[in-house]
Amino acid sequence: MDRELMNMHVGKTIRVDRGGPESRIGKLLAVFEDFFVLLTEKDGVVYYKTNHVRSITESSKDAMKLGLKIPEKLDFKTAENFHKLLESIRFQWVKINRDGGPESLEGVLSDSNKHYASLIVNEEVVRFSLKHIRNISYGLMVDKSANDDEEESSSSSSSSSHNSDNNEDND
Length: 171
Description:
Layout: H1 3-7, E1 13-16, E2 24-31, E3 35-40, E4 44-49, E5 56-58, H2 82-88, E6 93-96, E7 105-112, E8 116-121, E9 124-129, E10 135-138, H3 146-160, H4 164-170
Antiparallel strand pairs: 1-2, 1-5, 2-3, 3-4, 4-10, 6-7, 6-10, 7-8, 8-9
């Protein structure tokens, strides 16, 4: 995907790819040399390599909606290029290729260079070719909405208010 084209969609809700397991709807947060940042409802912040994206779709009637309230100051990683992004998230728990298929991996990013990234997965060190990484994310998620949290906390506190002394001992 062309960087100039992608920059025209920053701040808009788009669909990345038309379908399939890698297709996601989200808000385009930023575009860099060879990747872009997408905030999705299901996966949080996902970093997509532009050379693996076949299409982007913007609704002409603004029909694609995100079920998230996006914070004003959403903090996400930025970098000049994908390799430098990987360097900035070393030692983080990451998920590579979020489709859930055989080339999807989760683990701790232990090392990266211009050719591969190393992940610690269980008791193995897996080296993953950078040219085969379609997207990556690391533990950054946005709560669906503040109202959902308030409702949950008020219902749980009202149901357990008479046992508050016992709950403090269990913390």
